[in-house]
Amino acid sequence: MLKDRATAWENQLMPRRSNEFQRLIYAIRINLADGAKVTESKLLRDRLTKGLREVDVCIESSVGGTPVRVCVECRDHARPADVGWVDAMKEKHSRLPTNALILASRKGFTPEARRAATLYDMETVALDDIDEERFPAMFGIGSSLWQKETTISVEQIRVKVPATEELDAETVICSPDNNVFDANGNLLGYVSEVVAKLVQQQYVHDHLVARATPEHKAFELIWEPPRDSLGRPFFIQKIDPSVFREILAMNIRGPVTCSISTFGVRRHSFGDVKVLWAPTQIMGNPALFVATRDAEGKDLLALHVAGSSVSPSTLTASQHTT
I want to staple 292 with a disulfide (CB 3.0 to 4.6 A). Which of 18, 31, 78, 254 is the partner? Predict the structure, then answer.
């Protein structure tokens, strides 16, 4: 069974020198990291020049309490990597704090390059095509995926309050900075903060995402009766006359946008790891869908997003289809 995971790329845009193949290698290594720290475009100190050198992907962990750093260099050229590139990587990492080096080439390696890498005790991996007919059975994913993006913005909050001896029952339009209190008159925060916590709840998100379509232009949520995590009611204060009244219901409205798109998937093997992947966009940011099956048969499904403020719950909205 696939395990869903959404990993944000440290909330920053990918470096300009990064390319699709490098991002794929990074994403695969994230899937296989098993607790290790994986960084793309890591800067390491050159022991000779004292300057900083960029490494495509850096995997850091510890073995028996000793720090271990495995570096991955990527080559995305139209031809197989030759011995010259292998020699250059050997020279580069001989001056870096690298414990082990993996060379990844989209188009593979020349025989001489592989022999040199073996003598240098480097691992070489290439992204090889594999039989597409085997993948649907492996991952339950066909030749394409669909992606659904839904965004909402709260524009209006109405609260229903009961009658008192001096006041009639009414529905009040709140400003975002209207205060909310507990039953003892203690300030809890702004009404906008209370609503934000509600909208961020997983079950509310799932409800909105499941029902939203591209035709929808607005949403409405009715919270009745509104309660905190311990089941306690909320109150608002009337200034004149001064009285606290329980909030019996909240009506929350605002605009909604929803888009649905499909994108094709690609199938390869990366060493002994089966890989299904697809580049896409999440709210305008580069993203990479990656499904892997390692040598032990462990499946992992992940969506990696660059420079995104999207929450993990939003990222899981992508599902497989055709």
Answer: 31
What's the pLDDT at 10? 35
- Residue labelled with tokens 């992508």: 318
- Which amino acid is located at 106 in the chain? R
DSSP type of residue 252: E
Is 90 in contact with 120 (CB distance < 8 Å)? yes
**Which amino acid is residue 122, in one-letter code?**
M
The span from the CA of 41 to the CA of 46, in Å, is 15
Q: What's the predicted TM-score (pTM) here? A: 0.56
Structure tokens at 67: 């720090």
Tokens of 142: 């066909």
What confidence tens digit (pLDDT) does each residue in 45-89 have? 999 999 999 999 999 988 778 888 999 999 999 899 999 999 999
Closest CA to 7 of 266, 206, 301, 292: 301
Judge if the upstream peptide bond of residue 241 is cis by omega within 30 degrees of 0: yes
* Residue 298 one-letter amino acid: K
With tokens 């209006």, the residue in question is 156
Specify whether the CB–CB gap between 161 and 170 falls below 8 A.
Answer: yes
Q: What is the pLDDT of residue 66?
A: 84
Residues 6+ apart with CB under 8 A from 131: none
What residues contact residue 318 under an 8 Å CB cut-off, 6+ apart?
Answer: 145, 146, 147, 148, 289, 303
User: In this structure, which topology does domain 3-143+265-320 adopt according to CATH?
Assistant: Trna Endonuclease; Chain: A, domain 1 (3.40.1350)
Kindly tell me the burial class for residue 157, based on how many C-beta atoms sit within 10 Å of its own C-beta (0-12, 13-18, 19 or more): buried
Side-by-side strand order, sheet with 52-63 = 3-8, 299-305, 285-293, 273-282, 266-270, 123-129, 100-105, 66-75, 52-63, 37-45
Cβ pair 225, 232 in contact under 8 A: no
Every domain of the chain and the residues it spans:
3-143+265-320, 149-260
